[in-house]
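so my prof wants the structure for this chain in the tokens format not the other one, which i didnt know existed until like an hour ago. anyway here's the sequence
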Amino acid sequence: MTATQRLTDRKREAIVAAAISEFRDNGYEITSMDKIAATAGVSKRTVYNHFPSKEELFAEILHQLWASSVAQLDVTYSSTRPLREQLRTLLEAKMKMMSDANFLDLARVAIAATIHSPERAQDIVNRLSEREEGFTVWVRAAQEDGRLKPVDPGFAAHQVQSLLKGFAFWPQITLGQPTLDAASQANVIESAIDLFLAGYEITTRC
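here's what i got, hopefully its the right format
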């Protein structure tokens, strides 16, 4: 990597860090690209060179928060590992992301920013849904291996993740409840796995 590339990367990181701070402290609508540039210590032109719009910058922040929580996660289906064990690994990563204070703060900002803009809301939902595709791929692979019933894999993946969100995301976002402690997180995860396997696991294989 050249010195120029390293400088460019540092500027991009500074922009993202500044945007996280500004969005979290002041909200989406009030935060301007000018303010983000000032906080990052770069020119407004530099900000736009990296991110064509505030929407793109905000979406990138949400993507990075998600990616950082699952960077080490292996979502590859294994025919030899128990389904419960694999599901636990996947859901623990999801729970970790939903327990991240920065993610929750920015999720609140995102919801506030999209209340009056259905188009923006749909765009953010679509972008974040892409990040959950790995779980859907895992479900489909387990189905092809004859271990899960042949339901819509996207529906099944969304359903089990929603079981977590009902306890560890939406109450925190909408009601200001604290993040779950470790014991509560484990209980929610195990209960979600129980329900998922009870509904979809094929217990007798041919």
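also thought this was worth mentioning. The chain has two domains: 1-52, 72-200.
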